[in-house]
Design brief:
The protein is α/β, with parallel strands linked by helices and 574 residues long. The chain folds into four domains: 151 residues, DNA polymerase, domain 1 (Orthogonal Bundle); 94 residues, Beta Polymerase, domain 2, CATH 3.30.460; 62 residues, DNA polymerase, thumb domain (Beta Polymerase, domain 3), CATH 3.30.210.10; 237 residues, TIM Barrel (Alpha-Beta Barrel). It has 23 helices and 17 strands. It has a seven-stranded parallel sheet with strand order 11-12-13-14-15-16-17. The chain is globular. It starts with a helix and ends with a helix.
Length: 574
């Protein structure tokens, strides 16, 4: 079997989860996780390195013991430590760790006391009231667990946008290789750039007489596991990773209507039908009709124009005011990735990043950025290997030298400083004043009340040294629910204190979400779209933050890292 870097990382992550359940030293667990994250983003094939008998310890976060496990996996197909855990615990037990409020200790209590070993058995235990009599499981925690379980059940099997993207790209390229295919595009929630997708909706254009042949080509895709349905102009397949792809074949004459219909959202499409019905027209995936006469032309722009609407970008099609704006010609001119002039949240191996400071600088320079900010973690949580005062001062000296070396890229001296439980910061004001930029973030005490968590962030924003609030809600998509916050109150203070709200581009964060981004924009708040990169490849994550910003109706003027350096520094100096 061939092992991609993602395959290796997946096994190390699983090992870390089992180790948590088994009560292994937390530093060992952290080592597995750091190794997994490094390998997942590593540019060179780990498998090839093993086969060439290369030393893996040259890779950051790979020590002797982890190197041995990786060699074992590549050479034998198994990690013996992982196999022992799999024999000891049911695989479904790991599902419990996805529920907010259930850590390893709580999961083991549920397993040993109530034989709860899966989400289904947890649901049964909640229903029967068995948790009520369990020591350490109070009413508040039980409610939190129930909410988390409900959230997971509602989400079902979904794929992060970033994880679905390679499959979307590949199926489009595969279909376009067929000589009868004129055009292929993935529609649905993927085209609307939602943070996660349940499936992929593929629209392909060809002549009507070629439809069956094109469908047949689709069902021969080499990554499919199963064919669910197959007709003359439609088909559904499931891939090896359980991602479903639905194909709709359209002709050029009604391509625009079909693309709009299958892009959605459902609420957006229903509103279009309602608009048409009110004036005696009919809308379907084949076009806009008055009696039997087709009114729209081929393109999607024509489809909207026929309804007296400006073209609505796919990311805005969520029934959040886009029709009123399209009618009144007030739709936003959405931000583009090319508008981003720099990245203001980057980590190096000074804290928990993989690459050296200079390597990250060179990578950013190659991306054409005008400026970047190095924002390693402050020293607060030992597992993040953050900077104390001496190491931060040393890093400042290095950045000063690099600024002399790389004249066309301004390297801003920064920090991602921890917001402590009471809202104070983990570094002194005297030290923070020496920096160009300060990103303040929460990394612990996620279970505070809504009032306390809100006040914690507000107090941090009122520190004159703070420029950006990082990953504000603390959520990890499909892993950790956001903590409760009074966003209106936070945005009011952010506007008053000239503090930007981060759109964190990490695929599992995408934090702040699109709904609150739109609200903050309407309240006059500014944003910073950052990669939160811990590796060179992660600099590319900025794409996902831009997607999120577009869904939040953001324009170039709303985002501080689209500005020139002079204007940016004026904002940071506040």
């Amino acid at each position: 079997m061939n092992y991609s870097n993602k395959d290796i990382a997946k096994q190390l992550k699983e090992l870390a989860m089992y180790a948590q359940l088994d009560g292994v030293n937390r530093f060992k667990i952290r080592a597995y996780k750091e190794a997994a994250n490094t390998i997942e983003n590593y540019p060179t094939s780990i498998e090839k390195m093993v086969k060439n008998k290369q030393n893996l310890k040259q890779i950051p976060h790979i020590g002797k013991k982890i190197e041995k496990k990786i060699y074992q996996l590549i050479n034998s197909g198994k990690i013996s430590a992982l196999e022992r855990y799999r024999a000891k615990y049911p695989a479904s037990l790991l599902e419990l760790l996805a529920i907010p409020g259930i850590g390893a200790k709580k999961a083991m209590i549920l397993y040993k006391k109530l034989n709860v070993n899966s989400l289904n058995s947890l649901q049964s235990a909640l229903k029967s009231g068995e948790l009520n009599n369990l020591k350490g499981f109070g009413k508040k925690l039980i409610k939190h667990i129930q909410e988390g379980l409900t959230m997971l059940k509602q989400e079902g099997k979904r794929f992060l946008y970033a994880n679905a993207k390679p499959y979307a790209k590949d199926i489009v390229e595969y279909m376009q290789k067929h000589p009868k295919v004129k055009k292929a595009i993935v529609a649905g929630s993927f085209r609307r750039k939602k943070e996660s997708v349940g499936d992929l909706d593929l629209v392909v254009v060809c002549k009507k007489k070629d439809s069956s042949e094109v469908v047949e080509h689709f069902t021969k895709y080499n990554k499919l596991k199963d064919i669910i349905t197959q007709g003359s102009n439609r088909a559904t397949i499931v891939l090896e990773n359980s991602l479903q792809i639905d194909l709709k074949v359209a002709q050029s004459s009604f391509y625009g209507a079909t693309l709009s219909y299958f892009t959605g959202s459902k609420a957006h499409t229903l509103h279009i039908r309602k608009m048409a019905k009110e004036i005696g027209w009919k809308v379907s995936e084949y076009g806009i009709f008055k009696d039997e006469t087709k009114l729209d032309k081929r393109s999607e722009k024509s489809f909207y124009k026929t309804l007296s609407l400006d073209f609505i970008e796919p990311e805005l099609r969520e029934l959040r005011g886009e029709f009123e704006a399209a009618k009144n010609h007030t739709l936003p001119k959405l931000l583009k990735q090319s508008d981003i002039k720099g990245d203001l949240h980057i980590h190096t191996n000074f804290s928990d990043g993989v690459e050296s400071l200079e390597n990250m600088v060179v990578a950013a320079y190659k991306k054409g950025y005008k400026y970047i900010a190095i924002t390693d973690h402050s020293w607060h949580m030992p597992l993040l290997h953050g900077l104390d005062e001496d190491r931060l001062l040393k890093q400042i000296e290095i950045i000063d030298k690099l600024n002399q070396k790389y004249k066309n890229l301004k390297i801003l001296k920064g920090i991602e400083v921890d917001i402590l439980k009471d809202g104070s910061l983990a570094l002194s004001d005297d030290l923070l004043e020496k920096l160009d930029i300060v990103v303040a973030s929460i990394h612990d005490y996620f279970n505070l009340s809504k009032i306390k968590q809100t006040n914690r962030i507000i107090k941090a924003m009122q520190n004159p040294n703070v420029n950006i609030i990082g990953h504000i809600s603390g959520r990890l998509i499909q892993q950790r629910a956001p903590y409760p916050l009074n966003y209106t109150k936070i945005f009011e203070v952010a506007k008053k204190e000239s503090v930007a709200i981060e759109i964190n581009s990490q695929p599992q964060r995408l934090d702040i979400n699109d709904i609150y981004a739109k609200l903050a924009k309407e309240m006059g708040v500014k944003f910073a779209i950052n990669s939160d990169a811990h590796h060179i490849k992660c600099l590319d994550y900025i794409e996902y933050g831009v997607n999120q910003a577009r869904r939040g109706w953001l324009e170039k003027k709303d985002v501080i890292n689209t500005w020139g350096l002079k204007k940016l520094k004026e904002f940071l100096d506040k």
